[in-house]
Amino acid sequence: LPAIQEKHDDVSMLQELVKRWANHKVLVGKLCRSFNFLDRYYIARRELPTLKNVGFGCLRKIVGAEMKVRVKDDVITLINQEREGEEINQTLVQNVLEIFVDLRNEDDTQNMEYYV
Q1: Boundaries of each Cullin N-terminal domain copy (predicted)?
Q2: Residue of 33, 41, 21 lying closest to 102 (CA atoms)
Q3: What is the 3 state secondary structure string of the chain?
Q4: Per-residue model confidence (pLDDT) at position 50
Q5: pLDDT per position in the chain (116 positions), as tens?
Q6: CA 110 from chain center: how many Å?
Q7: According to the model, what pLDDT value does residue 27 have?
Q8: Which of 19, 28, 35, 41 is most exposed, with the fewest beta carbons within 10 Å of its own?
């Protein structure tokens, strides 16, 4: 989180967030594959959240609590810049929006609180 927060300009902060998110997704994926047995048997029997949900939930809590408003405002600023005719990094905006979609809680797909 400090590596993301220390970025003062909108674009560099969003780029750092996308980079960190990509690393986090890889790590969560490897953990899920490594502990697949736990997910299928132990966690399912005890009705616990999956490792994927726990892994994404950790980042959801950190980014959601600390950064959600700033990230949302920065993306809206970039979109407004494009509307005014400026050139923006559209891939960056798309990647940040995908982060918001990925961070939703898969167990509660009706809850749109994270997007507000």
Answers
A1: 4-115
A2: 21
A3: CHHHHCCCCHHHHHHHHHHHHHHHHHHHHHHHHHCHHHHHHHHHHHCCCCHHHHHHHHHHHHHHHHCHHHHHHHHHHHHHHHHCCCCCCHHHHHHHHHHHHHCCCCCCCCCCHHHC
A4: 86
A5: 677 767 778 899 999 999 999 999 999 999 988 888 888 888 878 888 888 888 888 888 877 767 888 889 999 999 999 999 999 999 999 999 998 888 776 555 555 565 55
A6: 18
A7: 93
A8: 41
For residue 88, the one-letter residue type is: I
Residue where the block lists tokens 């899920």: 32
One-letter amino acid at 112 equals M
How far is the CA of 10 from the CAs of 6, 28, 62, 92, 109, in angstroms?
A: 11, 27, 19, 11, 29
